[in-house]
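Dear Dr. H.,

I hope your travels went smoothly. While you were away I took the liberty of generating a structure for the chain from your last submission, since the lab meeting agenda had it listed for discussion. I wanted you to have the full record in hand beforehand rather than looking at slides cold. The sequence, exactly as received, is reproduced here:
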Amino acid sequence: MKQPFIKKNRTFTLLRKYAWIYTIVVAFGGLWFPKLGLTVPLIILGLTLSSLFMGKYWCGNICAHGSLFDALLLPLSKNKAFPQILKNPYFIGFVFLFFGFNLSRRMLALQDFWGRASFWDQLGMIFVGTYLVVTVLGSLLGVFFAPRTWCTFCPMGTIQRVMHFLGEKTGINKNTNQVVTPKVDKCKACGLCSKACPAQLSPHEAFTEGKQFTHPECIKCSTCVYTCPTKILSYDKVLKYQPAEIPIPQIDIEEIPQKERKAS
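The corresponding predicted structure, in token form, is as follows:
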């Protein structure tokens, strides 16, 4: 999708407007109160379980860093295209392994402190430090490129991709995973939904064909729903067949009994 991208409101709930406060409290307040970092594993557990049933819904609606990017950084951002290198699968895999290795290494180093009063403070500080790095790096990328640049290679996003894949393959999410759905033959192909998409996807390409937008990177943030000038978008369960793919029965006239043909 070509530029220009446009800046549209992305915070449609109180949670999305103010969840960034949690990020600031943990990333900076945790430097003085390390136990605040002990809440981060609960966040990881929550996004892991939710993505099994709803894809990257957490990223677009609950994530505190996402709230920071959308509520505070959007007005300051240059809102340019994501650098292609950051979307490279090998780079994404490297970042995931790096964060995973570093986190595991630091946690294993704490085993000698088990049972001591300082153990929980030191464990919390590990997550505080990680949260601080994400906050600073994500904010810099958000200002110089686009607000959600960090999300293109976020390790938590990688976890959500894997869990969403498992949810689809096992069929667990067939009744819980909802996707943006257009009213058939109503899309005007204006492309505003794609220009406003925080993940810089191209949903209008599906909508113009009357299809649902089932891209696994969709964060289900509803920005396209609210941006659409004709208000034809809503959420619905994934259809077995998209409108353009509904199979039409093929009838071989030679297989119709001769009596039936004469009667018609």
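Two observations you may find useful: The chain is about 50% helix and 5% strand. The first strand starts at residue 178 and ends at 182.

With kind regards,
E. W.
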